[in-house]
Amino acid sequence: MVTGLTLPFLSTNLKVHLSLLVVSLIYGATFSMAKVIMPSLIAPYGFILLRILSGCLLFFMVHSLFVREKVEKKDLFPLAVSALFGVAANMLMFFKGLSITTPINGAVLMLVTPVFVLILSSVIYKESMHWRKSLGVFLAGGGALFLIGGWKLSFDADKVIGDVLVMLNALSYAIYLVYVKRLMKKYNPITVSKWNFIFGLLIVFPFGCQELYAVDWSMFGPAAWGIVAFILLGTTFLTYLLNAYALGHASATLVGSYIYLQPVVAAILAIMLKQDSLNYLKVIYILTIFAGVYLVSLKKSRNGN
Predict the structure, then answer these.
(1) Chain centre distance of CA 77
(2) Nearest Cα to 191, choosing from 76, 86, 87, 88?
(3) Which of 49, 197, 35, 51 is nearest to 103 (CA)?
(4) Would you give the end-to-end CA distance of the chain in angstroms?
(5) Residue-wise over 118-148: b if at least 16 C-beta within 10 A, else e?
(6) Closest residue by Cα to residue 257 from 299, 290, 301, 284
(7) Domain ranges of the chain
(8) What span, in angstroms and rounded, lies between the C-alpha atoms of 22 and 237?
(9) pTM greater than 0.90
(10) pLDDT in tens, 131-154
Protein backbone atom coordinates (compact mmCIF):
# COMPACT_ATOMS: atom_id res chain seq x y z
CA MET A 1 0.00 0.00 0.00
CA VAL A 2 1.30 3.44 -0.92
CA THR A 3 1.04 6.02 1.83
CA GLY A 4 0.41 9.67 1.00
CA LEU A 5 2.39 12.73 1.86
CA THR A 6 1.53 14.12 5.27
CA LEU A 7 -0.40 17.15 3.98
CA PRO A 8 -4.02 16.27 4.89
CA PHE A 9 -5.35 19.70 3.86
CA LEU A 10 -4.39 19.07 0.22
CA SER A 11 -6.12 16.73 -2.21
CA THR A 12 -4.21 13.74 -3.56
CA ASN A 13 -4.31 15.17 -7.07
CA LEU A 14 -2.79 18.47 -5.91
CA LYS A 15 -0.09 16.64 -3.93
CA VAL A 16 0.82 14.66 -7.05
CA HIS A 17 1.24 17.85 -9.08
CA LEU A 18 3.20 19.58 -6.31
CA SER A 19 5.50 16.54 -6.05
CA LEU A 20 6.16 16.53 -9.79
CA LEU A 21 6.68 20.31 -9.79
CA VAL A 22 9.32 20.01 -7.05
CA VAL A 23 11.03 17.25 -9.06
CA SER A 24 11.12 19.50 -12.13
CA LEU A 25 12.52 22.40 -10.08
CA ILE A 26 15.30 20.21 -8.68
CA TYR A 27 16.20 18.65 -12.03
CA GLY A 28 16.07 22.02 -13.76
CA ALA A 29 18.64 23.40 -11.31
CA THR A 30 20.82 20.28 -11.33
CA PHE A 31 22.14 20.45 -14.90
CA SER A 32 23.91 23.78 -14.45
CA MET A 33 25.06 22.96 -10.90
CA ALA A 34 26.56 19.59 -11.85
CA LYS A 35 28.78 21.23 -14.46
CA VAL A 36 30.66 23.03 -11.68
CA ILE A 37 32.08 19.80 -10.26
CA MET A 38 31.84 17.35 -13.16
CA PRO A 39 34.13 16.32 -14.75
CA SER A 40 36.70 18.75 -13.28
CA LEU A 41 36.45 17.42 -9.71
CA ILE A 42 34.73 14.08 -10.19
CA ALA A 43 34.28 11.90 -13.29
CA PRO A 44 30.72 11.06 -14.46
CA TYR A 45 30.62 7.34 -13.56
CA GLY A 46 32.22 8.03 -10.18
CA PHE A 47 29.59 10.67 -9.48
CA ILE A 48 26.81 8.28 -10.50
CA LEU A 49 28.16 5.65 -8.11
CA LEU A 50 28.30 8.26 -5.33
CA ARG A 51 24.69 9.25 -6.05
CA ILE A 52 23.42 5.67 -6.01
CA LEU A 53 25.45 4.78 -2.91
CA SER A 54 24.06 7.78 -1.01
CA GLY A 55 20.53 7.07 -2.26
CA CYS A 56 20.85 3.46 -1.14
CA LEU A 57 21.97 4.49 2.37
CA LEU A 58 19.30 7.20 2.71
CA PHE A 59 16.41 5.02 1.58
CA PHE A 60 17.66 2.10 3.69
CA MET A 61 17.80 4.34 6.78
CA VAL A 62 14.41 5.98 6.22
CA HIS A 63 12.82 2.63 5.41
CA SER A 64 14.24 1.04 8.58
CA LEU A 65 12.98 3.91 10.76
CA PHE A 66 9.53 4.62 9.31
CA VAL A 67 8.32 1.86 6.97
CA ARG A 68 9.84 -1.57 7.72
CA GLU A 69 7.82 -3.12 4.93
CA LYS A 70 8.88 -6.48 3.53
CA VAL A 71 8.61 -7.46 -0.10
CA GLU A 72 7.57 -10.82 -1.45
CA LYS A 73 10.36 -12.94 -2.92
CA LYS A 74 8.54 -13.10 -6.25
CA ASP A 75 8.85 -9.30 -6.53
CA LEU A 76 12.64 -9.17 -6.13
CA PHE A 77 13.23 -9.85 -9.81
CA PRO A 78 10.76 -7.15 -10.97
CA LEU A 79 12.48 -4.75 -8.54
CA ALA A 80 15.85 -5.64 -10.07
CA VAL A 81 14.44 -4.98 -13.55
CA SER A 82 13.07 -1.59 -12.51
CA ALA A 83 16.45 -0.75 -10.96
CA LEU A 84 18.20 -1.67 -14.20
CA PHE A 85 16.06 0.70 -16.28
CA GLY A 86 15.28 3.41 -13.72
CA VAL A 87 18.52 3.78 -11.75
CA ALA A 88 21.48 2.13 -13.47
CA ALA A 89 21.07 2.10 -17.25
CA ASN A 90 19.47 5.52 -17.66
CA MET A 91 22.09 7.30 -15.50
CA LEU A 92 25.05 5.55 -17.13
CA MET A 93 23.85 6.10 -20.69
CA PHE A 94 22.80 9.72 -20.12
CA PHE A 95 26.08 10.91 -18.59
CA LYS A 96 28.17 8.95 -21.09
CA GLY A 97 26.08 10.22 -23.99
CA LEU A 98 26.20 13.81 -22.76
CA SER A 99 29.99 13.64 -22.60
CA ILE A 100 30.06 12.80 -26.34
CA THR A 101 27.23 14.88 -27.80
CA THR A 102 26.33 18.56 -27.36
CA PRO A 103 24.18 19.88 -24.48
CA ILE A 104 21.48 20.98 -26.95
CA ASN A 105 21.33 17.53 -28.56
CA GLY A 106 21.16 15.90 -25.14
CA ALA A 107 18.40 18.20 -23.87
CA VAL A 108 16.31 17.89 -27.04
CA LEU A 109 16.63 14.11 -27.33
CA MET A 110 15.54 13.69 -23.70
CA LEU A 111 12.22 15.27 -24.66
CA VAL A 112 11.14 12.04 -26.40
CA THR A 113 10.76 10.34 -22.98
CA PRO A 114 7.04 11.24 -22.55
CA VAL A 115 6.33 10.04 -26.11
CA PHE A 116 7.91 6.68 -25.28
CA VAL A 117 5.87 6.57 -22.05
CA LEU A 118 2.63 7.28 -23.93
CA ILE A 119 3.31 4.50 -26.44
CA LEU A 120 4.47 1.95 -23.84
CA SER A 121 1.47 2.66 -21.57
CA SER A 122 -0.91 2.06 -24.45
CA VAL A 123 0.83 -1.23 -25.34
CA ILE A 124 1.46 -2.65 -21.85
CA TYR A 125 -1.47 -1.31 -19.82
CA LYS A 126 -3.84 -0.91 -22.77
CA GLU A 127 -4.30 2.75 -21.86
CA SER A 128 -6.20 4.45 -24.64
CA MET A 129 -4.21 7.11 -26.47
CA HIS A 130 -6.92 9.72 -25.89
CA TRP A 131 -6.62 12.68 -28.26
CA ARG A 132 -6.36 15.15 -25.37
CA LYS A 133 -3.49 13.29 -23.72
CA SER A 134 -1.66 12.79 -27.02
CA LEU A 135 -2.14 16.45 -27.96
CA GLY A 136 -0.86 17.53 -24.54
CA VAL A 137 2.33 15.46 -24.84
CA PHE A 138 3.19 16.80 -28.28
CA LEU A 139 2.13 20.37 -27.45
CA ALA A 140 4.34 20.46 -24.34
CA GLY A 141 7.12 18.77 -26.29
CA GLY A 142 6.97 21.38 -29.02
CA GLY A 143 7.08 24.24 -26.52
CA ALA A 144 10.05 22.70 -24.69
CA LEU A 145 11.84 22.00 -27.98
CA PHE A 146 11.69 25.64 -29.07
CA LEU A 147 12.43 26.97 -25.59
CA ILE A 148 15.80 25.19 -25.45
CA GLY A 149 16.66 26.04 -29.05
CA GLY A 150 15.84 22.66 -30.57
CA TRP A 151 16.20 24.03 -34.08
CA LYS A 152 19.97 24.04 -33.43
CA LEU A 153 19.99 20.25 -33.16
CA SER A 154 22.78 18.78 -35.31
CA PHE A 155 23.71 15.18 -35.98
CA ASP A 156 27.46 15.19 -36.61
CA ALA A 157 29.22 11.89 -37.31
CA ASP A 158 31.43 12.21 -34.22
CA LYS A 159 28.38 12.75 -31.99
CA VAL A 160 26.16 9.94 -33.25
CA ILE A 161 27.13 7.50 -30.48
CA GLY A 162 26.37 10.14 -27.85
CA ASP A 163 23.01 10.92 -29.47
CA VAL A 164 22.11 7.22 -29.55
CA LEU A 165 23.05 6.79 -25.87
CA VAL A 166 20.87 9.75 -24.85
CA MET A 167 17.96 8.31 -26.85
CA LEU A 168 18.46 4.91 -25.22
CA ASN A 169 18.52 6.65 -21.84
CA ALA A 170 15.17 8.29 -22.64
CA LEU A 171 13.74 4.90 -23.64
CA SER A 172 15.18 3.29 -20.50
CA TYR A 173 13.58 5.87 -18.20
CA ALA A 174 10.26 5.55 -20.05
CA ILE A 175 10.33 1.77 -19.55
CA TYR A 176 11.02 2.35 -15.85
CA LEU A 177 8.08 4.76 -15.42
CA VAL A 178 5.69 2.32 -17.03
CA TYR A 179 7.15 -0.89 -15.55
CA VAL A 180 7.48 0.26 -11.93
CA LYS A 181 3.90 1.55 -11.65
CA ARG A 182 2.58 -1.89 -10.64
CA LEU A 183 5.14 -2.10 -7.82
CA MET A 184 4.32 1.42 -6.64
CA LYS A 185 0.67 0.45 -6.25
CA LYS A 186 1.58 -2.62 -4.20
CA TYR A 187 4.33 -1.24 -1.94
CA ASN A 188 5.26 1.97 -0.18
CA PRO A 189 7.33 4.21 -2.52
CA ILE A 190 10.18 4.18 0.02
CA THR A 191 10.25 0.37 -0.10
CA VAL A 192 10.41 0.31 -3.90
CA SER A 193 13.04 3.05 -4.00
CA LYS A 194 15.19 1.26 -1.41
CA TRP A 195 15.31 -1.94 -3.43
CA ASN A 196 15.81 -0.03 -6.69
CA PHE A 197 18.92 1.61 -5.26
CA ILE A 198 20.21 -1.63 -3.72
CA PHE A 199 20.05 -3.42 -7.08
CA GLY A 200 21.21 -0.27 -8.88
CA LEU A 201 24.31 -0.13 -6.67
CA LEU A 202 25.23 -3.71 -7.59
CA ILE A 203 24.91 -2.91 -11.31
CA VAL A 204 26.75 0.44 -11.30
CA PHE A 205 29.59 -0.42 -8.90
CA PRO A 206 31.89 -2.02 -11.54
CA PHE A 207 31.51 1.04 -13.79
CA GLY A 208 32.19 3.75 -11.22
CA CYS A 209 34.41 2.28 -8.50
CA GLN A 210 37.73 3.34 -10.07
CA GLU A 211 36.54 6.88 -10.87
CA LEU A 212 35.15 7.37 -7.37
CA TYR A 213 38.35 6.01 -5.78
CA ALA A 214 40.40 8.48 -7.84
CA VAL A 215 38.57 11.59 -6.51
CA ASP A 216 40.78 14.06 -4.61
CA TRP A 217 38.35 15.25 -1.92
CA SER A 218 40.81 17.90 -0.70
CA MET A 219 40.04 19.87 -3.89
CA PHE A 220 36.43 20.40 -2.84
CA GLY A 221 35.62 23.83 -1.43
CA PRO A 222 32.40 24.93 0.38
CA ALA A 223 30.57 25.65 -2.90
CA ALA A 224 31.49 22.24 -4.35
CA TRP A 225 30.39 20.46 -1.17
CA GLY A 226 27.12 22.40 -1.25
CA ILE A 227 26.47 21.24 -4.80
CA VAL A 228 27.29 17.64 -3.87
CA ALA A 229 24.87 17.82 -0.91
CA PHE A 230 22.12 19.29 -3.11
CA ILE A 231 22.52 16.58 -5.75
CA LEU A 232 22.74 13.70 -3.27
CA LEU A 233 19.82 14.83 -1.08
CA GLY A 234 17.68 16.59 -3.67
CA THR A 235 18.39 15.23 -7.15
CA THR A 236 18.93 11.65 -5.97
CA PHE A 237 16.87 11.03 -2.82
CA LEU A 238 13.98 13.51 -2.96
CA THR A 239 13.26 13.30 -6.69
CA TYR A 240 13.05 9.50 -6.70
CA LEU A 241 10.84 9.58 -3.59
CA LEU A 242 8.44 12.17 -5.02
CA ASN A 243 8.33 10.50 -8.44
CA ALA A 244 7.58 7.19 -6.72
CA TYR A 245 4.72 8.80 -4.77
CA ALA A 246 3.31 10.35 -7.95
CA LEU A 247 3.46 7.03 -9.83
CA GLY A 248 1.35 5.47 -7.10
CA HIS A 249 -1.47 7.96 -7.74
CA ALA A 250 -1.17 9.11 -11.36
CA SER A 251 -0.50 7.78 -14.85
CA ALA A 252 3.04 7.22 -16.04
CA THR A 253 2.25 9.56 -18.94
CA LEU A 254 1.52 12.45 -16.57
CA VAL A 255 4.70 11.79 -14.56
CA GLY A 256 6.74 11.63 -17.74
CA SER A 257 5.18 14.79 -19.17
CA TYR A 258 6.61 16.89 -16.32
CA ILE A 259 10.03 16.52 -17.93
CA TYR A 260 8.86 19.34 -20.20
CA LEU A 261 8.91 21.76 -17.26
CA GLN A 262 12.65 21.29 -16.74
CA PRO A 263 13.58 23.63 -19.63
CA VAL A 264 11.18 26.20 -18.12
CA VAL A 265 13.01 26.02 -14.79
CA ALA A 266 16.39 26.23 -16.53
CA ALA A 267 15.24 29.27 -18.52
CA ILE A 268 13.89 31.05 -15.43
CA LEU A 269 17.12 30.39 -13.51
CA ALA A 270 19.19 31.69 -16.42
CA ILE A 271 17.10 34.87 -16.50
CA MET A 272 17.39 35.33 -12.72
CA LEU A 273 21.17 34.90 -12.95
CA LYS A 274 21.23 37.37 -15.87
CA GLN A 275 22.61 34.67 -18.17
CA ASP A 276 19.62 35.07 -20.48
CA SER A 277 16.79 37.51 -21.19
CA LEU A 278 13.02 37.15 -21.41
CA ASN A 279 11.11 37.91 -24.60
CA TYR A 280 7.59 37.34 -25.88
CA LEU A 281 8.57 34.15 -27.76
CA LYS A 282 9.92 32.52 -24.61
CA VAL A 283 6.72 33.46 -22.77
CA ILE A 284 4.69 31.79 -25.55
CA TYR A 285 6.87 28.63 -25.37
CA ILE A 286 6.53 28.46 -21.56
CA LEU A 287 2.74 28.91 -21.71
CA THR A 288 2.56 26.21 -24.41
CA ILE A 289 4.39 23.79 -22.12
CA PHE A 290 2.03 24.48 -19.22
CA ALA A 291 -0.98 24.06 -21.53
CA GLY A 292 0.33 20.70 -22.74
CA VAL A 293 0.97 19.38 -19.23
CA TYR A 294 -2.53 20.55 -18.23
CA LEU A 295 -4.10 18.59 -21.08
CA VAL A 296 -2.18 15.45 -20.05
CA SER A 297 -3.38 15.85 -16.45
CA LEU A 298 -7.08 16.03 -17.41
CA LYS A 299 -9.01 12.86 -16.73
CA LYS A 300 -11.45 11.45 -19.24
CA SER A 301 -15.11 11.98 -18.48
CA ARG A 302 -17.37 8.94 -18.17
CA ASN A 303 -18.68 9.32 -21.70
CA GLY A 304 -15.10 9.15 -23.00
CA ASN A 305 -14.81 12.79 -24.05
Answers:
(1) 22
(2) 76
(3) 35
(4) 31
(5) bebbbeeeebeebeebbebbbbbbbbbbbbb
(6) 290
(7) 12-297
(8) 12
(9) no
(10) 777 787 778 777 777 766 655 656
